[in-house]
Amino acid sequence: MAESPAFLSAKDEGSFAYLTIKDRTPQILTKVIDTLHRHKSEFFEKHGESANP
User: Which cofactor does it need (predicted)?
Assistant: First the structure.
């Protein structure tokens, strides 16, 4: 039976996980925040101020 791959850890500088957390996560969060901000009026129109579905 094949073994499962090793867990990724962001503790090791230079690893894929470290670089993803360090570089890509801030970019992703910035895009999410920007999208929410640009479309907030649409969200309020659809869901109301209380955001209840």
Answer: Mn(2+); Ni(2+)
